[in-house]
């Protein structure tokens, strides 16, 4: 399977800081179909179309496309707004079939093989960082963006995504909480599961992330919002807050949360590391990014934890590897410091 293939091919690469991802504004006061126009205008549309077609051809079974095209004809029935209208707008802007736009948004759910860390320093400050690892790495590096979503001229939340996707893989609500997702490795027939869940009104994970960033008012409400809605794929939600102890990893089945793991700094648990495996089980030897991350964090020490030191931790091999698309560092209490780095 593609997931297994992905997990066995990363090759460590040297530490690199890389350039920042381009940053744009999406104005939520605009009609949904128009919101991404200024973002798309900065990119090579033919490049996006050709690579998107290859991703679909390489990964999507022939039987899936007719099913998804049927869904696309009734987009508002299956997808809530603003996502349905935003996808229509992107389909038009990119000249990509509407059904294929739906596929490209769903495909991400199963391919985010990443490392996320939430940590607390000795002063009680919460920091959050992530590497996103993905096949089609070079292409995705060139279409990864940071987005400030604004309402009434103010930043409501910030997120990182790929051009053409209406959800976000990580983000922050300023002075409230930070959030990232990692795929939970699953050995089943992922497209059958996705279609089944989609027709049953399961949430697209990156869209739930965006909704939570938009509506949750604090760390606790974000954890609740991410724990219960049905999803189209298994996943991990990693959440950081602004108060001491506000860090969690939520392990999700499609149906509900199976475990919530919290920071417990008074008991010596001052960081949480999540890759793509349940934290109570040993990661497979072929893909153990957890142990190097823990060793690097322990070597750094709680007193020295900050966004810069977390960036160094995520630059340790094999946490940083040839599939790493970008690295994001964030702290909701210091929202101006949100930044993502394009890995080279």
From TrEMBL:
GO terms of molecular function: fatty acid amide hydrolase activity; N-(long-chain-acyl)ethanolamine deacylase activity; N-acylsphingosine amidohydrolase activity
Principal EC category: hydrolase
GO cellular component labels: lysosome
Xref: Pfam families: CBAH, NAAA-beta
Acid ceramidase N-terminal domain sequence ranges: 20-79
Predominant place of localization: other
Occurrences of domain Choloylglycine hydrolase/NAAA C-terminal (ranges): 114-281
Catalytic activity: N-hexadecanoylsphing-4-enine + H2O = sphing-4-enine + hexadecanoate; N-dodecanoylethanolamine + H2O = dodecanoate + ethanolamine; N-hexadecanoylethanolamine + H2O = ethanolamine + hexadecanoate; N-dodecanoylsphing-4-enine + H2O = dodecanoate + sphing-4-enine
EC number(s) given by UniProt: 3.5.1.23, 3.5.1.60
Family matches, as Gene3D superfamilies: Penicillin V Acylase, Chain A
Pathway: Lipid metabolism; fatty acid metabolism
One record GO biological process: fatty acid metabolic process
Compartments where located: Lysosome
Domain of life of the organism encoding this protein: Eukaryota
Keywords: Glycoprotein, Hydrolase, Lipid metabolism, Lysosome, Signal, Zymogen
InterPro entries: Acid_ceramidase-like, Acid_ceramidase_N, CBAH/NAAA_C
Active site per database record: 114 (nucleophile)
Quaternary structure (record): Heterodimer of an alpha and a beta subunit, produced by autocatalytic cleavage.
Recorded family membership: Belongs to the acid ceramidase family.
PANTHER family cross-referenced by the UniProt entry: ACID AMIDASE, N-ACYLETHANOLAMINE-HYDROLYZING ACID AMIDASE
Name of the protein this chain belongs to: N-acylethanolamine-hydrolyzing acid amidase
């Amino acid at each position: 399977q593609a997931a297994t293939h992905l997990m066995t091919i990363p090759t460590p690469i040297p530490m690199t800081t890389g350039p920042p991802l381009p940053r744009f504004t999406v104005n939520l006061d605009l009609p949904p179909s128009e919101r991404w126009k200024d973002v798309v205008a900065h990119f090579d549309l033919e490049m996006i179309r050709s690579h998107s077609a290859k991703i679909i051809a390489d990964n999507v079974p022939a039987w899936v496309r007719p099913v998804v095209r049927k869904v696309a004809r009734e987009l508002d029935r299956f997808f809530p707004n603003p996502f349905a209208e935003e996808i229509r707008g992107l389909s038009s802007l990119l000249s990509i079939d509407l059904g294929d736009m739906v596929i490209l948004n769903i495909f991400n759910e199963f391919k985010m093989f990443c490392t996320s860390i939430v940590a607390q320093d000795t002063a009680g400050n919460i920091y959050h960082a992530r590497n996103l690892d993905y096949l089609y790495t070079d292409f995705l590096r060139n279409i990864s963006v940071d987005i400030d979503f604004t309402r009434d001229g103010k930043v409501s939340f910030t997120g990182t995504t790929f051009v053409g996707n209406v959800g976000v893989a990580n983000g922050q609500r300023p002075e409230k909480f930070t959030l990232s997702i990692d795929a939970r490795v699953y050995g089943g027939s992922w497209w059958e599961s996705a279609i089944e869940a989609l027709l049953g009104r399961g949430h697209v994970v990156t869209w739930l992330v965006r909704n939570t960033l938009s509506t949750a008012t604090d760390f606790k409400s974000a954890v609740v919002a991410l724990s219960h809605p049905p999803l189209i794929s298994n996943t991990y939600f990693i959440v950081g807050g602004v108060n001491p102890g506000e860090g969690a990893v939520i392990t999700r089945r499609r149906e509900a949360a199976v475990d919530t793991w919290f920071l417990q700094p008074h008991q010596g648990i001052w960081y949480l590391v999540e890759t793509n495996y349940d934290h109570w089980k040993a990661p497979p030897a072929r893909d153990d990014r957890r142990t190097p991350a823990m060793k690097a964090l322990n070597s750094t020490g709680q007193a020295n934890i900050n966004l810069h030191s977390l960036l160094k931790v995520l630059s340790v091999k094999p946490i940083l590897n040839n599939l790493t698309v970008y690295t994001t560092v964030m702290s909701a209490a210091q929202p101006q410091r949100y930044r993502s780095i394009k890995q080279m």
